[in-house]
Structure formats: structure tokens, C-alpha cells
Amino acid sequence: MFTDLPEAELRQHRSDLCEPSDFDAFWADTLAEARSCGDPVAATPVSTPLAGVDVFDVTFPGFAGQPVRAWLRVPRGAPGPLPTVVQYVGYGGGRGHPLENLLWSAAGFAHLQMDTRGQGSGWSRGDTPDVAAAGPQAPGMATRGVDDPRRYYYRRFLTDAVRAVDAVVDLPGVDPGRVAVLGHSQGGAAALAAAALAPRVRAAVAHVPFLCDIPRAVTLTDSAPYREIRDYLAVHRDREEQVRRTLSYVDGVAFARRATVPARFSVALMDEIVPPSTVYAAYHDYRGEKELTVWRFNGHEAGGIDDDAAAVDFFLAALG
Predict the structure, then answer these.
(1) Residue 1 lies in a domain
(2) Where in the sequence numbering do the catalytic residues fall?
(3) Is 186 part of a structural domain of the chain?
(4) What angle do CA 221, 227, 231 make, to 5 degrees?
(5) How many Cβ atoms sit within 10 Å of the Cβ of residue 299?
(6) Strand, helix or coil for residue 136
(7) Are the C-beta atoms of residues 7 and 297 closer than 8 Å to each other?
(8) What SUPFAM superfamilies does the entry give (predicted)?
(9) How many degrees, rounded to 5, is the angle at CA 29 between CA 65 and CA 175?
(10) Which residues make Cβ contacts (< 8 Å) with residue 308, sequence separation at least 6?
(11) 307 lies in some domain
């Protein structure tokens, strides 16, 4: 069933997100610190049975210089340098197996699939720990360090997402002038942040992005990951204000207000995990050229392979 406002009202919905006054300084300082430390980017060839794709095991410095893993897949023998897609993974997943997710390299792109720190055991394996200390939290990642924006999990994750764009330009086969970002759900949140914060990004695709218009989302759905925030506040009743403040630093609506590259969004009107109005909120506030595909009879899977096919066309047009 439909899970949110009627479609006509969704087309008019705007977020009332109140950004912190130091939002831009917060992210500028965070990224400056990350860029000042860490080992160089490393890419090691991986032996696979693939006849048409070369795979590299990549390690790059993420938040605070901490090592983050990724797979780089490059079409074998393609004349380079190539248009490049940096992909971020949905909640609970990691970079997976080197033989998975071959669409982008098969379509002629260099493809970096970033691992997700501390995740990768829900449905797709990962190899990157989240080494930061955190206080009390609800089960899952959405409230890890949520009492303090500087200790919050998603500060680290979104910094990793930006640093993946920084790192990819030094990798084999990559055209540094043609880099795009892509993600679904949690990955869509990362794509919006990277579109706003990473100067090398030339286009973005955010399918049913998580972490948008968060205060509204928490009151509309009973599903995780937003449910984790509600569960935390149900116990820590006196911390609502500070939790809201922390979340405002990672809200996709704030990133959308700062992003200017061409972007493609998708939204699913029967999505019980990411409320449709929260996607519309980010889409409406997005500053760059944009398009939105509405899937009326789908849930959080959104358009599935149809979204993927449209994303390929979108990036071919945007990157050449």
C-alpha cells in the first residue's frame, strides 16, 4: 500500500530541516583532517576467472586516514582513460565478492565499489572495521555515537564516501575528469553527500536515498534503520534535542542544497523503509539539474534493474 502522503501532495512537499550554523565549517574541517593523514592509495591485481574484466583490491585512506577497502573493476583492453562510477552500498552490506556487481565494467566504465565500515554482514560481506569508540546505542549503526556529531558513525561513513572519490582518480584506467557517484538507500545518501562535498564529481544517482529529512522519516516508518533512532529515543528520552542536532549534520536535504552536478533520483511510493516524502524533500531542494523517476507500485527495491538501466544511460549522457 502507499506509505506516505498522496502523490499530489508529495509533489509539493518541502523539508523544514533547520541546518546547524556551522554545517559547512564542520564538513570542511572534517575533510581537511581526513585529507591530511593516511597511507597512499594501494591497488593490487586480483586473480579471477573473468575474461573481460580486470579486478583490483583497493585500500584508500578514509575518515581520519583510516584504511577503507574497495574493489576496482575495469573492462579489460578498453581504451582509457574511462568514465568512472564510484558506488556506495546499502545498509548492512559491504563491497561483496570480486565476481559480483559486474554491470558497470561490462557497460564500459571503470567501477569502484566502496566497502562500508563496520557493516558487510547483513547481506553482502565487507572487510573494513569501524574502529572508532562509541557510547550507548540501539542495535545497528544508525545511533552509534549519535549524541555527538563529531563521534557519529555517519560522519565517518560519509567522509569515506568523499575520500573514495579523491582516491579513484589515482587508480588504473580512470579518467579524473569523468567521475560519477551512485548508490541505493544508504548508498544514495552517500552519493548525495559526495555530490555536495567532492569537487571531482560530475554526476550523481541516488535511488531511494536514506538519511533525508530525517526528523520526518523517524516519525513515519516502523522499519529499520530509522526504527533504531526511534528505539534509542524511546529509552534516552532526554536526548532528543542533541540527537536531532547530530542528525542535521548528515541529512541529505542539507547536502542537496549544496550540490549542483546533474543528478538522477528515484522514489518508490510503497517504500516502508525510506518514506517517499523524504526523497521528494531532497529532490526538491537539489540545486543542480535533476530528474526523478517515480515507482508507484514498488517498495524499497524501487525500480530494480530498470533503475540500473536508466542510471547507465544517465551516466553515458553525463560523462560521455
Answers:
(1) no
(2) 185, 271, 300
(3) yes
(4) 130
(5) 15
(6) coil
(7) no
(8) alpha/beta-Hydrolases
(9) 60
(10) 103
(11) yes
DSSP state of 65: G
**Residue-wise pLDDT tens digits, 20-73:** 999 999 999 999 999 999 999 999 999 999 999 999 999 999 999 999 999 999
In whole angstroms, give the CA distance from residue 55 to residue 105: 10
Amino acid present at 265: F
pLDDT in tens, 125-182: 999 999 886 788 888 999 999 999 999 999 999 999 999 999 999 999 999 999 999 9
Q: Which CATH number fits the domain that encloses residue 125?
A: 3.40.50.1820
Helix (H) or strand (E) holding 241: helix 240-248
**pTM exceeds cut of 0.90:** yes
Domain count across the chain? 1
What domain range is 91 assigned to? 7-319
2 inside domain: no
User: Binding site for substrate: what residues are annotated?
Assistant: 91
Name the 3-class secondary structure at 244: helix
- Angle among Cα 253, 33, 203 to the nearest 5 degrees reads 40
Closest CA to 190 of 161, 211, 224: 161
Of the candidates 223, 181, 209, 248, the residue with the CA atom closest to the CA atom of residue 90: 209
